[in-house]
Design a protein that fits this description.
Layout: H1 2-30, H2 36-41, H3 43-65
């Protein structure tokens, strides 16, 4: 029961982090003061991008290692 709950929570976290990533990227693409290449080359943008990728990667690994 607990492992099922953990799987659902981690899938939810993956969806939420992807949603934040996509919303952030779309916001910066359609923003007139920022070019989206500038957003990726910006250090805070890169840091946020890698943190989100790391969160998604860890949750995927935790899902598949439980099986």
């Amino acid at each position: 029961m607990k492992t099922k709950l953990k799987q659902y929570v981690s899938i939810f976290l993956i969806i939420v982090s992807y949603k934040f990533l996509i919303v952030g990227l779309v916001d910066f693409i359609y923003s007139h003061q920022y070019d989206w290449t500038n957003y990726l080359l910006d250090t805070s943008g890169l840091l946020l991008f890698f943190i989100l990728i790391d969160i998604v990667y860890r949750t995927i690994i935790s899902i598949f290692s439980k099986r």
